[in-house]
Amino acid sequence: MTIKEFFSFKKNFLFWGSLLAMVVVAGVLIFFSLRGIDRYTHHGEAVVVPTLKGKSFQEARKVLNDNDLVCVIADSTYAKDQLPGVVLEHNPESGSRVKKGRLIYLTVNTNNTPLIAVPDVADNSSFRQGEARILAAGFKLDEVELIPGERDWIYAVKYNGNELTPTDKVPVGATLTLVVGSGEEVVVTDSLAVDSAEIDESWF
Fold this sequence. Notes:
With 204 residues, the protein is an alpha/beta fold. The protein is built from four helices and twelve strands; from the N terminus they run H-H-E-H-E-E-E-E-E-H-E-E-E-E-E-E. The strands form four sheets. Strands 7, 8, 9, 10 and 12 form a five-stranded mixed β-sheet that branches. The protein has a three-stranded mixed β-sheet with strand order 2-5-3, with helices on one face. Strand 9 and strand 10 form a beta hairpin.
């Protein structure tokens, strides 16, 4: 068979017919494969992530479900100016364009106020030093409680009327009371002293 006869469709109909059929079948398979991938990945079906900050978890989940999105709580933290259980952050952020069915990760405000240790200022700090450390740790201060002792020296820290030890923990943002020396001299009494008026004269 000559080269001319090989490339002749009439002379070599079986070969060229089979080759053409293979090309058509391959094209059909590629077309439907791409369509299937588009359908599976929701190509072109992007939605905008709504604003979720400040909403409760239940509200945020409903909003996302209405937009063909799903959510999960990925983390929790504490914000004293927010209600427990509200959304503080989310990823992706609001305004982002994502595909339908995308998982949105939420950070919510914890339901329990965390407890932290109070700075150890009793018996080792002046009022100004202790006040600065207490406020820097996020606590509030009530009016000081004055007792006889070295002026402006912190002798104790109280919460709800109870004296705290260095290992005690209280809620973040709690109001504390500093027990501070007034500068008055501490009067020491001898517990063994006996009022002479009460001594029985028969002892002598």
